[in-house]
């Protein structure tokens, strides 16, 4: 068998290249989300931390929505969640909604974390991480700002300052 490989090095090289190309193409499949500025955001229905569920975007048509993905182990999530509360308070009457989506944690863990933050915006539970996956979340925190028509306006990967957050949502309000 080894003799055959030695006799046909070109065939083996071509086979190896074909396998590598296949592996790369599999990584580029349609499984990865393609969220594009100005395009509609994928919908979801998630349980609220307190009670009930929320149907996005149907329940929030005409609102500017900040969708924030977080977890209690994320070092930047706590400070950012506290820091955007004043921006929310200042702009909710103009149509700003914040959805803080906890990723892959149970209700008890999320509730313990939220209790110490004193925030008033909605907290949702993405227990299996399906919504985060569909949104292409690769790090926490990640925030998507959605315009009044339900289209992606801005994606923020990592921590943001209240000033930057206020400026972005201010463009849409």
List its traits.
173 residues, alpha/beta, Glutaredoxin, 2 domains, 37% helix, disordered N terminus, antioxidant activity, Thioredoxin-like_sf, TlpA family protein disulfide reductase, Thioredoxin_ResA/DsbE_sf, oxidoreductase activity
Structural summary, described in words:
- It is built from 7 helices and 7 strands, in the order H-H-E-E-E-H-H-E-H-E-H-E-E-H.
- With 173 residues, the chain is of the alpha/beta class.
- It has 2 domains: 1-32; 44-172, Glutaredoxin, CATH 3.40.30.
- The protein has a 7-stranded mixed beta sheet with strand order 2-1-5-4-3-6-7.
- It is globular.
- The protein starts with a helix and ends with a helix.
- The relative contact order is 0.19.
Give the DSSP E fraction (strand runs of 2 or more residues).
Answer: 15-25%
Number of domains: 2
Given helix and strand content, the structural type is alpha/beta
> CATH class of the largest domain, anyone?
Alpha Beta
What is the helical fraction, as a range of percent? 25-40%
Domain Thioredoxin: 35-173
Pfam families: AhpC-TSA (PF00578)
Organism: endosymbiont of Escarpia spicata
Protein name: TlpA family protein disulfide reductase
């Amino acid at each position: 068998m080894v003799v055959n490989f030695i006799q046909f090095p070109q065939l083996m090289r071509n086979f190896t290249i074909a396998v590598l190309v296949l592996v790369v193409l599999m990584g580029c499949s349609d499984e990865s989300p393609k969220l594009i500025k100005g395009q509609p955001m994928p919908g979801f229905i998630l349980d609220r931390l307190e009670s009930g569920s929320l149907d996005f975007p149907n329940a929030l048509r005409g609102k500017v929505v900040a969708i924030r993905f977080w977890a209690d182990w994320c070092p930047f999530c706590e400070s950012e969640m506290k820091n955007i509360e004043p921006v929310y308070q200042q702009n909710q009457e103009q149509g700003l909604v914040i959805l803080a989506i906890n990723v892959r944690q149970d209700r008890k863990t999320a509730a313990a974390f939220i209790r110490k933050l004193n925030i008033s915006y909605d907290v949702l539970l993405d227990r299996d991480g399906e919504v985060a996956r569909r949104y292409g979340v690769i790090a926490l925190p990640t925030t998507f700002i959605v315009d009044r028509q339900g289209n992606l306006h801005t994606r923020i990967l990592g921590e943001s300052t209240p000033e930057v957050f206020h400026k972005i949502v201010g463009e849409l309000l």
